[in-house]
Design a protein that fits this description.
Elements: H1 2-18, H2 22-28, H3 30-34, H4 38-45, H5 55-62, E1 67-73, E2 76-103, E3 106-132, E4 135-141
Helix pairs in contact: 2-5, 4-5
Length: about 150
């Protein structure tokens, strides 16, 4: 048991370091934050963006993108930052099980086949930010209808 706990601590530390917030990104990059206009500073601190923001401001507000698309649109250089979200996928089926517990004949081994629901999470594009000449020209997010 101690070995499992000892081996899981680095994983927990890694997961904790992966999650960042606008506040933590501002604290790590104060020079970028100070270079923004007061209006953009207020938006960034709330994790929001606006048309005309530069890429460093979007980074402070939303973090590193999970993917980038670079190209040319209407004769102008174009860039899109994509952010993913984890979407639950529900499934179920029959699966074998084995364990110990109390039953009608007392405590002992229990085994059989049971109906087991499960949830898996898959990444999907959640939002995108469009840039032209290094400034935000638009953004969108995927709405889930359920």
């Amino acid at each position: 048991m101690k070995i499992i706990l000892f081996l899981s601590l680095p994983l927990l530390a890694l997961l904790a370091s992966c999650s960042s917030t606008p506040t933590s990104r501002i604290e790590d990059n104060p020079s970028i934050y100070k270079s923004l206009s007061p209006k953009h500073q207020e938006l960034v601190s709330k994790g929001q963006i606006a048309r005309g923001m530069n890429k460093p401001a979007v980074f402070l507000a939303m973090g590193h993108p999970d993917g980038k698309v670079i190209g040319n649109k209407d004769g102008k250089d174009y860039e899109r930052w994509d952010y993913t979200q984890m979407v639950p996928v529900y499934s179920s089926g029959f699966s074998p099980y084995y364990g110990y517990g109390f039953g009608r004949h007392g405590y002992g081994p229990r085994y059989g086949i049971g109906y087991i629901p499960s949830v898996h999470y898959v990444p999907r594009r959640g939002s995108s930010v469009d840039f032209s000449n290094g400034k935000v020209t638009g953004w969108n997010y995927v709405s889930r209808n359920f």
